[in-house]
Structure formats: C-alpha cells, structure tokens
Amino acid sequence: MHPAFTLAHQEVIDLSKKLIPYLLLVPTFLIIGLFIYYPAVMTFQKSFYRVSPFGNRVFFVGLKNFESLFESPSYQQEAFTTLIFVVVSIFVGLVISLLFSLLLNEKVPGIGIFRTIIFSPYAVSPAIAGMLWSFLLNPVVGYVSYAFLRIFGVQTHWLTSYPAALMAIIVATIWQNLGFNIIFFLSGLQGIPESYYEAARIDGAGAVKRFFNITVPLLSPITFYLAIMDVTFTMFSSFGIIDIMTQGGPGNTTTTFIYRLYRDGFIYFNSGMASAESIVLILIMGIVTFIYFKFVQKAVHYR
C-alpha cells in the first residue's frame, strides 16, 4: 500500500475520533437550545413588551414592566415573603435533616425500615405533598389541628390565617425535601472514618465537641451542595405546595416570586409582566449563587 494513502487514511481516522464526541453531544445541545436557551431569549425579549387586554396587539414599552414591578407594594411584600420562606425552609430543613441523619446512622436492629420510611416523602410530588398537608391541617378533620386542640386547647385555622399559613407551607416544604437532604447527609456520615472519633474520645472530647469539631466540618461539602439545591427547590419546585395549600393567601401573605409569576402569566395572561418577573428571578438566583460560591465556599473543608 502506498505510504501517502496510508498517511491520509490515518488522518481520516484521527479526525473521525476527534469529531465523534462532538457528534454525540449534538442531541444534547439541540434539546438544551430548544427547551432552555430559546425560551430564555424569548422571555428576555417579551419582558420589554406588553400585550393588549384582548391579546391582539403587542406594544414595546422598554423598561416599563420592570419599573411597575419594583414600584408595586405587593411585589415588595412578596419579596419579603419569599425571603422568609426560603431562609427558614433551608436553615430549619438542613438542621432537622442532619439530626435525623445522625439517628439513622446508628447501628440498631430494623434501622433499614426507618431509613425507608424517612426517605419516602421525597418520592411524593409537591402537589401531593400539598394535598396531604391540607388534609392534616384541616380545622375540622385534620389530625394536626385535632392534636393542637387537645393539647393546647387552640383551634388554629392553618391555611386561612397569617402567619399560620406561612408556617404551614414552610413545614410542608421541609417535609417534602427531607428525604433528599437525609440521603446525602447519611452518605457523608458513613464516609467519615471511625478512627477520627476514636482519637477524639481518647483525647477526652465529648459528644457535642466531636459533633462540632469533626462531623460538621467534614460534612461541610455536602451541606454546601444541599444549600444550593434547597434554594432552587424552595424558589421553584415549591409552587405546587403553595398552589394546593393556600393559593397565595390569605391576602397574598404566602405569595412568593414563583407563584406571582404563575398568576400573572397563566391566570391574568400578562406575559410581559410575567417575563419581567422571570428575568428578575433569574438575576436573583444568579447573584445568590455567585455570592454563595464566592464567599461561603471558603468555609468548606475538603478532605
């Protein structure tokens, strides 16, 4: 075989090897482009327009949608509600998840059954979680309301009064996301060498000191990851819980950014305002993520 032909054949083979990975990624890029980047670009474009009440005309209004949004007292209230909802849900949820993980990490008979039970809420969709908690908190037939009435002598209208309604959706959100957090915390606890605790016991460290000086620092990478994931969940996926349990009430006191966006876009058909709210929400998530990775990551201890 001629050497020139052999060299050209080898170059073709090398080129095909370089192109194959990119060809395999083409379907992924198409899906991402069609369902993520294209809608994002269209949302950005529509945020500068308003649609007539009959939907037959579109007007360019520039930044008027954003101005109306930031000047709205209701949007300021919803910003405060979103902040309280996200911060409390994440902080309390992570603390409870860690405590449950410590209990589930113990080697006792039947621990596998308890682990399965505690993981089960994560398999429930947010809408179903909202239905379950709506039933539990029902003032007439709800078990939680009955327990409060018998123990404290108080009849609480959980879903129709403030701040009880906000507390209710926070509890439902924490419960629904509990299994996801515990899975990661439990895997992290099982990855900590027992020799670390043995050395601490020999040095005279108690259980509390071992927890804060060994467990918490070594779990910081998992805590860092879970905090980011929980921010995403509480900001977006909790919509189903709010819609089923309170519909943003009473008096918009449980309306968060994502529920306001849904209401403006799919109930009032105000696509321009909903697009502006989407842009604001994306910017907030981007800023929060940047600050978190920039500053909080410094406290993460990697083994």
Supply Rg.
26 Å
Shape: globular
CATH topology of the largest domain: MetI-like fold
Secondary-structure class:
mainly alpha
Mean pLDDT value:
85
The oligomeric state is single chain
**Largest sheet report:** 2 strands, antiparallel
Overall domain count: 2
> Per CATH, which architecture of the largest domain?
Orthogonal Bundle
Strand content: under 5%
Helix share bin = over 70%
The H-and-E topology, N to C, reads as HEEHHHHHHHHHHHH
By CATH, the superfamily of the largest domain comes out as: MetI-like
The separation of the N and C termini measures 56 Å
Number of helical elements: 13
- Give the neighbour order of strands across the main sheet: 1-2
The top level CATH class name of the largest domain: Mainly Alpha
Secondary structure tally: strands: 2
Unreliable runs, pLDDT <50, ≥5 residues?
A: none
Structure in a nutshell:
The chain is mainly α.
Please explain how this structure is put together.
The chain has 303 residues and is an all-alpha fold. It has 2 domains: 3-46, no CATH class; 72-299, MetI-like (MetI-like fold). It is 74% helix and 2% strand. The chain has 13 helices and 2 strands. The protein has helices at residues 3-46, 64-71, 73-104, 111-119, 126-136, 143-152, 164-190, 194-202, 207-218, 220-237, 239-245, 257-267, 271-295; strands at 49-51, 58-60. Helix 1 (3-46) packs across helix 13 and helix 5 runs parallel beside helix 11 (239-245). It starts with a helix and ends in an 8-residue tail after the last helix.
